[in-house]
From TrEMBL:
<dbReference type="InterPro" id="IPR001387">
    <property type="entry name" value="Cro/C1-type_HTH"/>
</dbReference>
<dbReference type="InterPro" id="IPR010982">
    <property type="entry name" value="Lambda_DNA-bd_dom_sf"/>
</dbReference>
<protein>
    <submittedName>
        <fullName>Helix-turn-helix transcriptional regulator</fullName>
    </submittedName>
</protein>
<dbReference type="GO" id="GO:0003677">
    <property type="term" value="F:DNA binding"/>
</dbReference>
<feature type="domain" description="HTH cro/C1-type">
    <location>
        <begin position="17"/>
        <end position="71"/>
    </location>
</feature>
Length: 76
């Protein structure tokens, strides 16, 4: 069985993560990562749609004070 890539879905999640960062006044992914104690490279990977853990996503959502439900609204 071939492994699915889910490229479009990962891209939609990545775009939402980037939008949250920008809406919260961070022009640089590096500044956001450093200020919030996240590894810069790992955070950059999330914003570019690379694979990530659910724990990392939850951590980022808690930083932005947004629920999983609100985060995923409108993502198809």
């Amino acid at each position: 069985m071939q492994k699915a890539n889910y490229i479009e879905e990962r891209k939609a999640i990545a775009d939402r993560i980037k939008d949250l960062r920008i809406k919260n006044g961070y022009t640089s992914y590096e500044a956001f990562a450093v200020e919030n104690g996240l590894p810069r490279k790992n955070y950059w990977r999330m914003e570019t749609g690379e694979n990530f853990t659910i724990n990392t996503l939850i951590r980022i959502l808690k930083i932005h004070d947004i629920s999983l439900e609100d985060f995923f609204k409108g993502i198809k």
